[in-house]
């Protein structure tokens, strides 16, 4: 009987450890995916702002150059 109890306890401990490891891995993967998506979105926002600013500066320079000779 004692060996059966030991085997059951070992199996339960192994199952619990495996479940905990799987849960931790899933949580880490989800966190990494969320961080990557957030960084990607922020980079896209920065690129859009830079492009709009460059377009505005270019338009301003073009207007100044066109108006200046007259």
TrEMBL record:
The chain crosses the membrane at residues 7-40, 46-68. The keyword Transmembrane applies. This is ABC transmembrane type-1 domain-containing protein. It comes from Elysia marginata. Keywords: Membrane, Transmembrane, Transmembrane helix.
